[in-house]
Design a protein that fits this description.
- This protein is α/β, with parallel strands linked by helices.
- The chain has helices at 21-25, 30-42, 57-65, 91-105, 120-125, 127-137, 150-158, 175-179, 181-186, 211-223, 234-245, 259-270, 276-289, and strands at residues 3-5, 12-14, 16-19, 47-49, 73-78, 110-116, 141-147, 164-168, 190-194, 251-255.
- It is built from 13 helices and ten strands.
- The strands form two sheets. An eight-stranded parallel beta barrel has the order 3-4-5-6-7-8-9-10, surrounded by five helices. A two-stranded antiparallel ribbon has the order 1-2.
- A hairpin with a 6-residue loop joins β1 (3-5) and β2 (12-14).
- The longest helix has 15 residues, at 91-105.
């Protein structure tokens, strides 16, 4: 599997990374996660990204692969220790969250700790950034990053405090390509794409019930990309290759609880990225159709 230097960090990351949300929210077993991550690590994946608020996600990862800690880079996020809908940006909460993540993940250091969708007003006050910097100074993390979208992400990039940016980038979510990625590239930041296959919402014939993915479903209905009508395999293949064809993107985080799906994604990338003409056609269609309020989806 191809590896790319994650910006100015020393990490050479696999272009396909593993996201821990699905295993946490999907009640996966330790046996399933061990099989999933074990086979992925054996095949060259070396990025595992999770968060404190992915229910049991951190604990499952720790139980499954902590014995292989030298085989992967470990990323997590903080700011929502009581669940994503209940952010807590106090110093005490963030410090406790980082320590709890270390225990759950069964490691004595993280490769990257990220502020998780922290608003611009809180970022500007500076205290949350100081907590991460102090965690880095104490050896609890090697690098610090910001995970989020839109204007808060732009501030995070331009303030110069962070080593990496994790943001939503997909065929249904292209706002970051012009808003934040140019500055992030100029500053040498590592760029991590989240939701790179737009939650595969093309699988739904009717509007999905889950509000987390409804916006993408509605956008793709209007974008009406021809490749989404070309067969079941074409959607995920084109979507993943599109995201990784964007200049500056170093790794794309994909979550799953199905061990076989990881292998399918790896095989997709083994055939190369999108032809430039195909990439430009997707960008052109977005610029023709995208509405003013189509910002990055959290």
């Amino acid at each position: 599997m191809e590896h790319r230097a994650l910006g100015k960090t020393s990490m050479q990351v696999s272009v396909l990374g593993f996201g821990g949300s699905e295993i946490g929210h999907g009640n996966a077993s330790v046996k399933t996660v061990s099989r999933l991550l074990g086979s992925a690590l054996d095949a060259g994946l070396n990025v595992i990204d999770t968060a404190e608020c992915y229910k049991d996600g951190e604990s499952l990862i720790g139980k499954a692969v902590s014995h292989r800690r030298q085989d992967y880079y470990l990323f997590t996020k903080c700011g929502h220790s009581n669940g994503y809908n209940f952010p807590d940006w106090s110093r005490e909460s963030l410090e406790s969250s980082i320590d709890r993540s270390l225990r759950r993940l069964r490691t004595d250091y993280l490769d990257l700790i990220q502020l998780h969708s922290c608003g611009e007003e809180i970022l500007r006050q500076g205290a949350v950034i100081e907590v991460l910097q102090q965690a880095r100074d104490k050896g609890k993390t090697r690098y610090i990053g910001y995970s989020g979208d839109n204007d808060p992400a732009l501030y995070a990039v331009n303030c110069g405090a962070f080593d990496t940016l994790q943001t939503s980038i997909s065929i249904a979510d292209q706002n970051a390509i012009t808003l934040t990625l140019p500055s992030a590239r100029d500053k040498g930041m590592g760029i991590i794409a989240k939701r790179p296959i737009a939650n595969a919402v093309w699988k739904y014939r009717a509007r999905p019930q889950d509000p987390y993915i409804q916006a993408y479903w509605e956008r793709l209905l209007k974008l009406d990309y021809p490749f989404l009508r070309a067969g079941a395999k074409t959607g995920p293949e084109t979507a993943l290759k599109f995201t990784l064809s964007i200049p500056g993107v170093h790794t794309a985080i994909v979550g799953t609880i199905k061990p076989g799906l990881w292998q399918q994604n790896a095989e997709i990338l083994a055939t190369g990225l999108l032809a430039q003409q195909h990439f430009e056609s997707i960008r052109t269609r977005w610029m023709e159709v995208a509405e003013a309020d189509w910002g990055g989806e959290i």
